Structure formats: structure tokens, C-alpha cells
Amino acid sequence: MPLPAVFANLRLPVIGAPLFIVSNPDLVIAQCKAGIVGSFPALNARPQSQLDEWIHQITEELAAHDRDHPDALSAPFAVNQIVHRSNDRFEADVESCAKWKVPIVITSLGAREDLNHAVHDWGGITLHDIIDDRYARKAIEKGADGLIAVAAGAGGHAGRWSPFALVQEIRQWFDGPLALSGAISTGGAILAAQAMGADFAYIGSPFIATEEERADTASKTGIVEGRAGDIVYSKLFTGIDGNYVRASIVAAGLDPDNLPTAGPEAMNFQSATGAKAWRDIWGSGQGIGAIDKVQPAGELVARLSAEYDAARQRLSELP
Is 270 exposed, middle or buried (CB count within 10 Å of its CB: 0-12, 13-18, 19+)? Predict the structure, then answer.
């Protein structure tokens, strides 16, 4: 199936993942100008009224860029909506997205038919993130246009399945837009995602270590200095399995090798330590070993693009 027209201006098959707390308009604009989809969680804009301001800023700056650079048009942007019933901002956030006709809406923690219809009414598309084939089928049944397969090794809330297993199961029945998430930090990994059947790589953790991110210096340093072995998989911090940086867990006064998995200890860690998930306990994927410095987002995309081209060249030379 051909990809939706909204992806026509991508210069690299990448969607920048929405990063809770730290993604912001500056990062999104830099990503889109560099030629990849930029995104942010609606809940990052606080108070809710700020969401309208953020989308306005992104829309206007990208339009100005396109007027000045007709030969290098910006990529589209996306807003991530948490559709779980606990999100009391959901309706207001959808209204803000409708006002500005956000081109791509990424949905998480549940699939909602009414939201998919609303996005289609203003001309946008929806991509739903899933961790297994069962949830993928439910999302498409409820009208999502595409899927984001969150495999083992992804940052934050992550699945347990190998990307090979997850993608091949989805591609047995679905031929629409598919992004793959999970330890993708190089151009070669982007090409590998496509080789196994995905249309896009879904990349988050490398963008934490960019100048535009509003993450604090300590968390950026943790990404630059971290390796795959420094990532801890636990459901302690949010009740949902996820990957987090070991150093931040230690700094919160917890033993990463002896974390409670259920019961009162898991529910009370915040009151006991004062630490909060995402702010103090940093989400990150296993691919951070490829990140060696903090740099502008545009430079990171340029590095990924050069590596992607080099990987394609190596592939063409194979016997």
C-alpha cells in the first residue's frame, strides 16, 4: 500500500518519538526542518492552554521555512495523545489539534474510534503505538491508519518482543504505514528496520541528547555516558513495563538490581523516595551506546542520514 501523502517530504524515513516532559516546539521544529517527523506529547504543554500556543508556533515556523526553502520543504509534525480515561485533558487537547488541523496524531494507552474519526474529519492521520500483535489488530479495527511497533529495547514504556517477531506478525495481515521502535540509534539500524518490513524508524532516546531538548544536563549526560547494560526494565515507576537509566534509579536511592515488582512497595516508591517517573527516573532505550555527545537535532539527523546512505551503499555491494 502506498504511504499517505503526508509523508511525501521526508528526507529520511524517521519519526522522532514524543518524549514525555522533555519534547518541545524547538525540538519538533528542528526535526521537521531536518526532514523527519517531529512530535511531542500534548501533555507536555502545561497548562492546557499552552498546547494551542505550541501548535501555532510549530505551524507558523514550518510554514515560514517552507516559503523560504521551496526546494527543501519541512516534514510534517505529530502530536501524541494519551487516550486512557485517566487523561482529563483529552477532549480539550483534541480540540486544539482540530483547530490547527494537526497532520499526524500518535495515540497511546488505548485506541479510540471517535478520535480516529475526528482526525480523519480534519484531514489528518493517526498512528497507534502497540507492543504486540493483539493490540495492533484492535487499533486497526478501530480505525487507526498506521501502527508504531514498540519492540524490546525501546525507551520508556517498551514491549518485550523482538522486533523481528513483532514486525513479521504484523506484516502477515497489515500493509499500511508501520514504524518500528526499539534501540534504533544509527543510520544502519534505520535501514535494518526497513529491511525487516517497517516503513519508518521511530527514534526517541538519541534526541534527549540534543541542544533543543528541555531535559536537564544530568539526564543528557546519562544518555551520552550510558550503554545498553545501563538500562533497567521495570514496571515499578508507572505500573507499566518500561526501560530506564540505571544511574537515575541509583540517584533516587533505589537498588536497580532489587526493585520491587508488585504490591505496596511498587505503589509507594514515589512517596518513599520523592522521585518521580520521567522527571527523576529517566526513560531511555538500549541503543544509547551509539550516542557520544550532545548536539543540535539537525546535526543528529545529518549523522543518521549519512550513516543510512553508507549502509545502503554497503548493501548494494554485497554479493
Answer: middle
